[in-house]
Task: structure prediction
Amino acid sequence: MKNNIRVERAIKNITQGDLAELVNVSRQTINSIESNKYVPSTVLALKIARVFGKPLEGIFTLEEGD
Amino acid sequence: MKSRFLFPYWCRYLGWGLVIAHVPLTMIAGQNGMEIESGPGGQGLFTGSHLFFMCTALLMATGLFMVAFAKEKMEDEQIWHIRLESLRWAIYVNYIILITSLVFINDTGHILELNLWVPLLFFIVRFRWVIFRLNRSLSREG
Result:
């Protein structure tokens, strides 16, 4: 699963640490999600989408093979 | 994220304290020639050496247990995921060692001892290693 959190963060001008605090996880987790090392749970994905004010599909997209 | 069935964060330090405390006790016993290596069997229950073996084994096992299942400072779903993955690996390794030693070693006392600390120790090492790698990649990216 791909995501454009890095881009959305840049648009909103917030750091990984800020986003981590907003969704109540560690900075490592946000970093792992951004670099596609970790697929977040539905709850966390929805929380992240809510921070950016976008639907889930606007942030996360399925890749071939998913 | 709600994390049930985990010890508070400070239990990690208490756990390491218990593990470290068990080392000199075992060494002293070894110097005095106590047969703690033979395990709980052999000389009957609640004899001096059995009680000593029980105390040192309990110190070590409780210590490792506390270290393994203490909360992280920031307990989130990724940590939970790493914890489960490490637990799975620990069980795999434990059973591979257990089955191999059951086939090739005819000493159930040592197998029991091995079974006491291998899964916990492997779990701790694997869990901490993955977290260390995560932190390293984080500091590399800045």
